[in-house]
Specification:
alpha/beta; Glycerol-3-phosphate (1)-acyltransferase; about 40% helix; globular; disordered C terminus
Length: about 280
């Protein structure tokens, strides 16, 4: 993420219940096994799939959906889907709360994350991101035309592209103003009937825990947050609220499109205008 949101209040202090590390190892080991199985299956199937279908992924898409769904089952986090996920090509935009978001948005319908080009070089994560078909882009106006063509190619084979317009994850209690950069590429494709679906992610903390339990933001360490979630004796719930898709061609420019998406996501949360330091 190019910018990081910082809360005015410190992150919640979570007390470890007895058996914390046992749960971390038990759940973490099973999740690693599931992801490993998904990676192995994708590596095995993808070469043939690529030869027969090119960019399309009719065989490996179900693998990703299965793995992401299993993550929530292993964690014990209840999963509710409201509304109907976008069917066919288009874009999905959502508020950004945690590393859990990628699993939540892929657990019912496969989406392809749009990430900054630097992610491709990150150890481990970059390899996994490339394997699952992440779209890498550079925030350079000189490459706007090439990036638009690349997105068009992905949409042409039926992909649903996902990005987080806030530009940063938060505590899950608010929606930050949407940045309009990536909406420009979508708006350039508007005459082709491109649709964008706003999605609201709502995390309900485990009983007795801080409402921000699943949020991951600011300078919070990933390892500590993973331990917090994996080791929780009781888990909460995630609600994925899919709003009506918006036709890009109905909006005069990227700013109007971004604002409409932001309002839909904010309405799903019932959030007030964002506070805190960006």
């Amino acid at each position: 993420m190019s910018m990081t949101w910082h809360s005015d209040a410190p992150p919640p202090v979570v007390t470890r219940a007895p058996g914390h590390w046992v749960r971390v190892l038990w759940r973490g080991g099973r999740i690693v096994a599931v992801i490993g199985a998904g990676v192995f299956a994708t590596l095995f199937v993808r070469p043939v799939e690529r030869r027969l279908h090119g960019l399309a992924r009719p065989w490996t898409q179900p693998i990703t959906v299965w793995a992401c769904g299993r993550v929530f089952a292993i964690l014990g986090i209840a999963y509710d889907l409201e509304g109907t996920p976008l069917d066919g090509p288009g874009a999905v935009v959502a508020n950004h709360v945690s590393w859990l978001d990628i699993f939540a948005l892929n657990a019912r319908k496969r989406v392809y994350f749009v990430a900054k080009a630097e992610v491709a070089g990150w150890p481990g994560i970059g390899l996994l991101a490339r394997l699952v078909g992440t779209v890498f882009i550079r925030r350079d106006p000189r490459e706007a035309r090439a990036q638009t063509a690349m997105l068009a190619g992905r949409l042409g084979v039926g992909h649903r592209l996902l990005f987080f317009p806030e530009g940063s994850s938060t505590d899950g209690l608010r929606v930050l103003p949407f940045k309009t950069t990536l909406f420009q590429a979508l708006h350039g494709l508007g005459e082709g009937g491109v649709r964008v679906q706003p999605v609201t992610l709502l995390y309900e903390a485990p009983e007795g825990q801080d409402a921000r339990f699943y949020g991951w933001w600011g300078d919070m360490e990933l390892g500590a947050h993973l331990s917090q979630v994996l080791g929780a004796r009781r888990q909460g719930r995630v609600r994925v609220v899919c709003h009506a898709p918006l036709a890009v061609s109905d909006f005069p420019d990227r700013k109007a499109l971004a604002l409409a998406c932001e309002r839909a996501v904010r309405a799903g949360m019932g959030a007030q205008p964002a506070s805190g330091v960006v």
